Amino acid sequence: MKIGDIVTRKSYNHDTVFKIIDIRKDKKGNETVILKGIAFRLIADSNIDDLEFVNNKDLKNIVIDNNVLDLLSIRNIKSLNKSPFRNVEKVQKSEKIYGMPGKVLQLDGDKEFLKICLDVYSELGIPAVGVAVPEQNQHKEVIRLLQKHNPDILVVTGHDSLTVKNGNISDLSNYRNSINFIKSVKQARKWEPNKDNLVIFAGACQSNYEQLIKAGANYASSPARIKIHALDPVFIVEKIACSRIDTVVPLSEILEQTVTGVDGVGGFETKGKFRWAMPKFLY
Most CB within 10 Å of its CB: which of 27, 78, 104, 191? Predict the structure, then answer.
């Protein structure tokens, strides 16, 4: 096996499709494979003997449509029964009126997922800036990037996981990147404490939801410590960016848009960021 191969884990009944991103050897020559989720924001490690290649026949179940990965488990394929795009609030039929969705800044530990998310923002007409920053460095860069781009919505994401089976879920040392996301949220709140002025989504697969919310995130993953879909942050952001600024967006409407639902993401009531404006620019 080599870096870039697509695999599943036998011990987890092939429940998740991964890409090999690194192979490390200890002093005794034992190999540990570092894995990144294809559909989900999960990072994991494995013994090479536990891995199985995904063959070309199975790969056809990973559907790529309009640069958006509608990625499903190859062993338990279910329809999401959702369009990957939701309808952005339509501008009123007037030559003088136009709409302005909220602006997004996304810091992502995965540049491949970041590109996918930016493609979706573009399709939805949501202005967005994306910066690929390793999770451990995001808290060092977030204030500089906030000052530079002055967004309405901040997304801090990448990959995460609980590193100990049945371990203490309150102990941040049992998570790969939750502490890094928490540091980034705290830094962002130093820059803008008001949770309606700057809306924050933070976390990835199995992240420590409670601590992210306490740190100042409006929305976070993962209440039930499950895997979240690569596009769950986008679906959260879309509803906020495209809801009127005088509206408190119902939580049920936000969470029902996501792939993983209330087990995967949660948060509290927040005002929208969409504004009507007139007249349109003449020059």
Answer: 104
Residue 114 lies in a domain: yes
Output the six-digit token pair for 25: 């050897």
49 and 104 assigned to the same domain: no
Tokens of 172: 């941040």
Instruction: Answer positive or negative: Cα dihedral of 134, 135, 139, 144.
Output: positive
The answer to whether residue 215 is domain-embedded is yes
For residue 34, the cross-strand partners are 22, 45
Which range marks the domain in which residue 35 is found? 6-59
CA distance 236 to 220: 10
Query: What is the residue-averaged pLDDT of the chain?
Result: 84
Report pLDDT digits (tens) over 194-218: 999 999 999 999 999 999 999 999 9
Strand order across the 128-132 sheet: 128-132, 104-108, 153-157, 199-202, 219-220, 266-267
DSSP 50: G
Q: Which of the four pLDDT bands, split at 50, 70 and 90, describes residue 94?
A: low
Residues 38 and 129 in one domain: no
| Whether residue 79 has pLDDT greater than 90 | no
Kindly state whether residue 84 falls inside one of the protein's structural domains.
no
pLDDT of residue 38: 77
For residues 139 and 67, is the Cβ–Cβ distance under 8 A?
no
Residue 121 predicted with pLDDT over 70: yes
Q: Supply the pTM of this predicted model.
A: 0.80
State the Cα–Cα distance between residues 240 and 249, nearest whole angstrom.
7
Can you list the alpha helix ranges (DSSP code H) found in the chain? Answer: 56-59, 111-124, 138-149, 178-191, 209-215, 232-241, 251-255, 261-264
The domain total for the chain is: 2
